[in-house]
Queue: 4 jobs
Job 1
Amino acid sequence: MTVDAELQAFLVEMNGPPLSEIPLELLREGGAVPTDTPAEMANVVDRTIPGPGGDIPIRLYYPRLAEDLPILVYFHGGGFVLGNIESHDSLCRKIALGADCIVMSVDYRLAPEHPFPAAPEDSLAATRWVLEHAKEIGGDPDRVILGGDSAGGNLASGVAIRLRDDGITKIRGQLLVYPWIRLRPRIEGSMVTNGTDYFLKATDLGWFEDLYLADADAEHPDASPLVIDDLTNLPRSLVITAGFDPLRDQGRTYAERLSEAGNICDHSHYAGAIHGFFGMPADISRRAVDEACAWLKATYSDAD
């Protein structure tokens, strides 16, 4: 198996020096990956909601004007250091249209200015807020799904576990796209085979970890959901992994553990894909988004 031809062309542009060698302000100014042209929405609303460290910016995407639409709470990727509402704007628009749902994109606090546990605290607060205020924004509080890519997958999975532990069972699903759910893992498997030549480097992950964790323990369950022993009674899940991703094995292991714990978990693997492919302007990326949207619609329907 080789890298998908369209993604291979992007790799030529995206591969570069280790992120630690580039000033952080420059990394944040430029987009990490190419994106599709943003789709038109019936409405897009920028606002803030209360958070543990101050107001949290969110963006609400409406595919149509209606009441009681299902909601996807989406946490962007970027290693807990990069990314924001704008970096994932095109993707959130596509999901809102394809799944016919409100997408609430959460601009959680980033490291190193706000190290762990700022991001999971904001993510949990944003989810609690939408469960309480879904009607206010035109959504259905009984049809809420959590989603995220890479670091965002970490946050989505962590929030699902925290809510389960608090006895909140209203979350209907979790969409985890190449989730980074084990920080400071052993360097083996896909971390070795895919850790140098396919956009996201193992050294980049180490740089993100140092900035995000600071003095925190990587074994903390809010930092690494994969270390948690009890994964029972979690929402239905779709885990998407990429064949040339250093995080491939983490996602596969988490999907296996969710299933072994008795949860409904679908695992979809895109063998020719790289980390960050979800939402890129490529056929394989569009197929993955289409699959995610179909899964979201089916999961929302099951909740009726």
Job 2
Amino acid sequence: MLTPEIQAILDGMNAAPGPPPHEVPVPDARAAHNEEAARLCGSGDPVAEVRDIRVGEVPVRTFRPEGDGPFPVLVYLHGGGWMMGTLDSYDSLLRALANASGAIVAGVDYRLAPEHRYPAALDDSLAAIRWLAENAGELGGDGSRLAVAGDSAGGNLAAVAARRLRETVRFQALIYPVIEPAFDTASYGDFAEGHGLSSASMQRFWRLYLDGADPGDPDAAPLRAGDLAGVAPAYVLTAEEDVLRDEGEAYAAALQEAGVPTELVRWPGTIHGFFRWLAVTPDAREAVAAVAARVRKALATE
């Protein structure tokens, strides 16, 4: 059963006029995603410093908490089906994570599909993480204490980054991540329609992102990777009524089978997207606090 706050949000989504989300033109979908952020995420908490930088051609926005550095670094890769999402639409979430974790949080404005197909988003994410690991000192950070996190499509990118950069990434937090383009799990059947993120929308996101690329490539579908041993310890959070729930939990199981210390939490009473709805549901604040606590512990000085 959904919490009252989440149920009210879902009722509003289901009552919205217009075509189903998977039929909305890309520019309109992006505008709606940004409007959702303004309405549900809030204006954000103050932090000590916000800085916009560029890593090559990739925009990155960093949020430094109060206190004395050098701070650990949390690289955050936003959701939006690789098609939507901006630094502005995730601003309030990144502020909350910086304050709660005590880390410099760096949001990466990676290139989006369909203009930029796979692996553009991944390439931008990897480039930003590598640069931050080497140059965090310029921002008051300690690049040797670096974690990656992301929600939804960003969780996909974070999972791949943790595997690809296992010598760099010390911890990974995956929030209802996109893991596998099979669309055949029980949660896909149970929550295909009427629960926010739909099966049809996910099929559209994958189609636009891959644009003919191999769906079995482990850099696109992390569950297909056969070399998970030795990647960073993980915290995997899934939402109870979400098409992506079962694949996220399957990935947590795969990490555990590979010997990776992994904590899996299924957040009760929630749907996909709740993690950033800080203005309207206490579940978002509680989940952010849970993720931040794990990051703080994982990146603490020894």
Job 3
Amino acid sequence: MGRLGLMHDVRIADLTIAVAGPSGSQLLADLGAEVIKIELPDIGDITRDAAPKLGNDSFYHLAVNRNKKSVALDLRTTTGREAFHDLVRVSDVVFDNFRPGVLEGLGADYASIRTVNSSAISCSITGYGPTGPYRDYPSFDDMAEGLSGVYSLCGEPGRAPVRLPIPVADLAAGLYASAGILAALLDREKTGKGRRIEVNMLDSVMYLLSLNFQPYFITGQVPQPAGSKHPIAPMVGIFRTRNGHIVLGPSWPRIARVIGKEWMIDDPRFNTVEKRFENKMELEALIEEGLQQADTEDWLHLMRLEDISAGPVNTLDAAVLDPQVLHNRTIARMRHAVGDDARTIECPVKMGGAVEQEHLPPPALGQHSYDVLKELLGYSDEKIAELKGEEKRVGDQEPRTRRRL
């Protein structure tokens, strides 16, 4: 498995940093687009230094920047901005995730891009949106998750909210941005016109919460954290077994038979759908009591014989060895500079008939600068030297600051 050669004729000038933008541009790179990651010289993406590392690559960089090229350009310089505009002229998409107002100062806003390439698509991810009272506030994944209401639903009832281990706001924004880019590219095939796309992390998380907000809109009752069980459906969620935990899906009345509590089926507390909802906690306590009489593996065997939806609660080391994960080839490998193959999570999009290529490891900072400037943009060695010289002068005059969202 590997890259799908579906977007080989699409070039993306990628100004994104951190997770939200890079996760979206990596998906497009996995689908075959040429993604040229533009980074500040000597500093690069703000996540490059995070530990743990494989060689010089942080885990962040490895996770969301494969199949890309890296060009070091300082858009604060005249020559750097000129080179960026030259790249925009031969690109289809400009992708960023800076705070509103940053692009204007770099000559990378949509108005500037449109004067250089009227058919270019510009896509920006922001924390809260390009306008409004929070426009200029710094935002990272946790802020969007807290503000959206996600954290209020996480944890055990009556206890403090629990942080999610997945950067849902970042990843959702990246996915919706990539979907917007694909739609804009399709539209451009018909109209020949570029387009401005705006995606923000707050809206992205709240879109994911549609199934949680809808009951509230109907009833006016504010959903509360439900812990390890489904907040509405009885018998759905995580249950203790003798040696661990098991995840159950809808399974009534078969679950009662499997755990040896057939009497529950006709019990007046549980013999209708309405009563099972009404007595949800009592029903789940009885099921968990039964499940604690045997090990997870034994229950899974019995439940699969009865066609009950159930699964283990894997740790990550167990997940990568799961038979279905191995069958799906979900863990991919890519060659890495340290000499060993680097493991990575495969793109979930599978498509029949698509030409597949090996994944390329994330690029070193500026790894493709010369090739892009020389071969793609046609710069002379003298012009490249001039550009690098101006970047060095600016870098020597200013502190090594990191750009922020």
Job 4
Amino acid sequence: MVQYNEAKNIVVKEASAFTTRITTLPLLKSLHRILAEDVFADSDLPCFINSSMDGFAIRYSERKNWEITDEIPAGHFHNVIMDIDKTVRIMTGGKLPEDADTVIPLEDVTEVANNITLREGLRLKKGQFVRHAGEDLLKNSLAVSKNTLLEARHIALLAMCGMAEVKVCTSLKAAVLTTGDELIDIHQFPSNDKVRASNLYTILSALKSLNVETVNLGILQDDKTQIKEAVQSALQSDIDILITTGGVSVGKYDFLKDVFNELGVEILFNKVNIKPGKPFVFGKFQDTKTVKYVFGLPGNPVSSYATFKILVEPFINAVYKQFEPPLIKAILQTDYKKSDKRLHFVRGLLSYEGNTFLVATQGQQSSNNLAGLAQSNCLFMAEEDSEIIKAGNEVSCIRI
């Protein structure tokens, strides 16, 4: 059995050695993908000196009034000779005439016929409301760096750089299967000793939120032959990751660890000193062409989700070269007691009051309490050597 930090380090080290593939996509299809190249500005941004306001362009002086001689709408530039007592009406984004260096906003003047007068009490500043060429980015400077998770704000800049297509990392592909004689699919009504297979939908959804392509392998009975055939088929397919839920503990019908061993999966660790989620398998399957990673998650629904967040998600983030969200330091609002030497990940409700994060335990902490999980927004950590964490102490929280 390994400690949590050791387990996480093993997972991240393996992920860091994973080679991602690259594909080229149209810009509008690259949202939420990982940029696979540095992108540089192909021109100055802005490309030309322009007005940041609707107003009047002038040559700066101490004057208070000017004659309007012309108009320059955005996108319709024509050069105008600027005398010191003359002005041209200009729209936001309009290119300034060569001799103009200052813009007066519309609301700062009174306009009568073809003349404007600066309003009483206002003073001009040379260069005001003028955007200079290259003040945002100079040509050939870095615009968006490699390994950026592309959001709408990045798409905007890539568009300004003329990137109709971009190189992005190919999405990881993960297959998910869940095991257990007690499981039924969600369209069935649970009766007698059956329960709906929530894990399948939880893990598939969590993967999709991380930009991972998913394959639903469904629900398998606790039949070793059937499970072995499904796992073998998955390992021979084009997936990068296989995630299973259930069947990795020490029960009579927990077959997955044996199946992994029999199929040549190298088990890197198979128990973690945490709660929930002690039974957890991480391994890799390597043939002459590819490496595939295997995560065997516990069957209890909360344990399954928690271990995904604390061990599978860091693997995916590391493959995609993404920084993990920082832990949040919060003040515990309720005492938390523990009676073992495991690191506990406790479901909690995180709030922010008076410049301080606060967290309180949320509901009963059993590993099948999905209602309590749904009503939580974090996991806070109760360290191995602690027996009771008193209200008022600081704890580290992971957002969920």
